[in-house]
Design goal:
about 220 residues, mainly alpha, Endonuclease Iii, domain 2, Endonuclease III, domain 1, 2 domains, 13 helices, about 60% helix, elongated
Length: about 220
């Protein structure tokens, strides 16, 4: 089946499965989403949501967060992966937002990616979910599923993003990236996954792909 036909069918299926796509990370502002996404690297959304209530109570915005000692931030987020580095980044980016943007989160990829700890994926989530700018943030779920489904060769996330943007309508990107994440968590785990019984892998994955995953 051609990639374009696969993409069209997948889009319909995911819309039926996930008509609503709430952002998995709890937040009340673009700043809080930025910090939450930054913390989600190598950490589950569940764990991030466990530590952010106290963090955002004391540092609800860039101005208040920048006043907190790094040690205090670290104490509140210690349970997340790479906590010392993330605490420093949260402190520094909060001060930068105050110095450069009057405490507001900038609305361009370039400005966001200039902030410490903010990569292209994090910037994409903020642009898409806070500002409604079409983006296709690629996380590990999307990267893995795009390869399993034969929509991308999966060599790197940059290539995967380019391939998926070419296959799916621009106005679907912001919702679709969350739908794929939800599907991956519910139906398509990284390990011990029988592709032949998966609602999407069963008809999109090649015999070669199925054989490769069965050998793992």
């Amino acid at each position: 089946m051609k990639r374009s036909l696969k993409a069209s069918k997948i889009l319909v299926m995911l819309e039926e499965l996930y008509p609503e796509t709430p952002v998995p990370l709890d937040h009340d502002s673009p700043f809080q989403l930025l910090v939450a996404v930054l913390m989600s690297a190598q950490t589950t959304d569940k764990k991030v949501n466990q530590v952010t209530p106290e963090l955002f109570r004391r540092g609800p915005d860039a101005k208040n967060m920048s006043k907190l000692p790094v040690e205090d931030i670290l104490g509140m987020i210690r349970e997340v992966g790479l906590a010392p580095t993330k605490a420093r980044n949260i402190s520094t980016l909060s001060q930068m937002l105050c110095d450069l943007y009057d405490g507001e989160v900038p609305q361009t990829f370039e400005q966001l990616e200039d902030l410490p700890g903010v990569g292209h994926k994090t910037a994409g989530v903020v642009m898409a979910q806070s500002f409604g700018v079409p983006a296709f943030p690629i996380d590990t779920h999307i990267h893995r599923l795009a390869a399993r489904w034969g929509l991308s060769n999966g060599t790197n996330v940059v290539k995967t993003e380019k391939d998926l943007k070419a296959l799916f309508p621009r106005d679907s990107w912001n919702k679709l990236h969350l739908q794929i994440i939800f599907f991956g968590r519910e139906y398509c785990p990284a390990r011990n996954h029988d592709l032949t019984k998966c609602p999407i892998c069963s008809w999109t994955a090649t015999k070669k792909r199925i054989a490769e995953e069965n050998r793992r």
